[in-house]
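Try this one yourself first.
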């Protein structure tokens, strides 16, 4: 218990209690990302405005964005979708990165797609990204988590390998982006405005 034990640990106990309270009170873990302008500029040049690109994980630029999607995280993903949508009113584009990670839930070991998106704005004229972006974990937007059927009795690693073989990669207009990606884009744009605007 936090109220018992040697007096010399009292400060540590209260620090732990404060940390736990902060975790409970913060429903949406956010991580502010800086220092990735070159990588994001290169990614934007590949995707372009009002487009969506689905990457095979092996073709996604892991090393340049490893601060928020390390190789160990991407090893659990079947693909990474990047979407860019314009905002003419504010002369900026929104870019969202959505890795489709396989997670396991419940006693039945059901598999689900889980998305932890990253968002950044880009100047519409120059394509220059904002100095800060946001990666957000365990969010609450429609279709952030969706079921994967037929893999209950298969390991996560085998599920990822099998689903990667079925992925169709490539570029398309933003209007054809999967609903979870569009939902993530809207959710993260609102969050960005609330946190950084």
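Now uncover the answer:
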């Amino acid at each position: 218990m936090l109220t018992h034990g040697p007096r010399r640990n009292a400060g540590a106990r209260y620090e732990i209690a404060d940390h736990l309270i902060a975790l409970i009170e913060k429903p949406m873990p956010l991580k502010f990302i800086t220092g990735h302008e070159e990588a994001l500029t290169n990614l934007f040049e590949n995707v372009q405005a009002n487009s969506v690109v689905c990457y095979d994980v092996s073709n996604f630029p892991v090393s340049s964005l490893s601060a928020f999607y390390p190789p160990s995280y991407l090893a659990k993903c079947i693909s990474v979708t990047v979407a860019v949508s314009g905002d003419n009113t504010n002369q900026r584009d929104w870019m969202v990165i959505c890795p489709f990670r396989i997670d396991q839930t419940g006693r039945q070991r059901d598999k689900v797609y889980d998305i932890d998106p990253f968002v950044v704005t880009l100047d519409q004229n120059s394509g220059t990204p904002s100095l800060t972006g946001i990666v957000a974990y365990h969010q609450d937007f429609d279709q952030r988590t969706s079921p994967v059927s037929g893999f209950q009795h298969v390991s996560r690693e085998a599920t990822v390998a099998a689903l990667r073989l079925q992925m169709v990669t490539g570029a398309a207009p933003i209007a054809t982006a999967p609903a979870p990606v569009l939902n993530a884009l809207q959710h993260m744009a609102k969050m960005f405005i609330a946190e950084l605007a």
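Discussion: Residues 1-14, 16-27 have pLDDT under 50 and may be disordered. DSSP finds five helices and nine strands in the chain.
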